[in-house]
Amino acid sequence: MERQLKLFFNFLENDKKLSDNTLQSYKRDLKQFRQYLEACGIHYNRAKEEDISEYIREMQEEGKKPSSISRCIASIRSFYQFVLKNRKIKVDPTAKIQSPKIEKRVPCILTSKEVELLLNQPKNVDLKGIRDKAMLEFAYATGMRVTEIISLNIDDVNLEEGYVICKNGGKQRNIPLGNLSLNALSEYIERARDILIKNEEEQALFVNINGGRLTRQGFWKIIKYYKEQAHITKEITPHVLRHSFATHLLQNGADIKAIQTMLGHSDISSTQVYMQFQDEGIKDVYKKAHPRA
Prior knowledge:
- There is one protein chain.
- This protein is mainly alpha-helical.
- The chain folds into two domains: 2-85, DNA polymerase, domain 1 (Orthogonal Bundle), CATH 1.10.150; 112-289, Intergrase catalytic core (hpI Integrase, Chain A).
- It is 54% helix and 5% strand.
- The chain contains 13 helices and three strands; from the N terminus they run H-H-H-H-H-H-H-E-E-E-H-H-H-H-H-H.
- A three-stranded antiparallel beta sheet has the order 1-2-3, with no helix packed on it.
- A hairpin with a 4-residue loop joins strand 1 (157-158) and strand 2.
- Helix 1 (2-14) runs antiparallel to helix 2 and helix 6 runs antiparallel to helix 8.
- The chain starts with a helix and ends with a helix.
């Protein structure tokens, strides 16, 4: 099984061009599944539907969330479809396996007033304040995932044309920037970034106070700090800013397909969750739709 897994992961990375985060999820899921098969004395190419079902029941008994189980089933199914295509098995044991139903949770959304309050907290009085202002404005202006933001390089931003190039795995999308985000970003690049970086070869757009690339943990801590400064009771994460970005655009008339493209959703159903927050009667494009454009 180990050899087939290596071939499968190589296929996901080089042919499917999956992001590193997604690839790591596949590896975790399939490592646990392999350990289960080995403990049961079952060879992967002799596993049957009831073996997969028993593994699912075991995960449920361990208290795993339906969403985690569904992701794990998807990983196992993809692996078996891969080895079936390569003629290592004759029958896919996951063919009739059903994923547990997942209740779609309503995403946490900030109001426009809460967003304004949060983004007005960083003050342009020092290097950290200039960076934090640019970072928060940028996160709300683009709706990018935190991993995508911290992975950005300075060359990914086009200040003259007003957009950022977001790369995720082998995929790429251009996202427009509003005026407030552009102004804050320009000030950060011109006044703070060159002083913060210790090495002129550093390519990261957003850097920490030591001059290195900002981490996920660092990003989360910054948002938490300003949330407390703003006395906002809602739990705010980078993903809450992403949800708020999408919802406010939709409420102000932006086309859902355009929002799908900006968010980088491969399936429109992932974007349609924001439809429940839509207000009727306001129809405009990004420049008019985004509250801080």
